[in-house]
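Worked example

This section walks through a single chain of length 120. The input is the sequence exactly as stored; nothing has been trimmed or padded.
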Amino acid sequence: MQVRLDKLYDEIEEIETFIEAVETRLYNIKQEKISGDNVYQFLLFFDNLYDRFTDMEKKIFMKSFLEEGNIYEAEQEDGRILRSLKFRFPVFFNEQELYELDWDNESTVESVLLMRWAKR
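Given that input, the structure is written out below as tokens.
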């Protein structure tokens, strides 16, 4: 009887450990969803709010989007200072879904065009 009882206690402990692991995963999923919702809300009101932020609020805001940012020690010949950005969520760039933009390995040519209205 004691051996059977010990075996049942061992099974109960394994099940409790499994339940705890599942609850932890659910909590993490909910936290990620909450942060994703927060990012979406920030984007909706970005143009109205950002100019009113203090420097500390701007830093916190950017940290919610960026996981990592790398800059060069000095400005490059082409005027760039950013080496790469790693986002906390996927972004669409060059028809691809990316989590990281690395300008050393990517072509990011920009063009500026001035258009004027010609009267006839």
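What to look for: Helices lie at 2-44, 46-49, 55-65.
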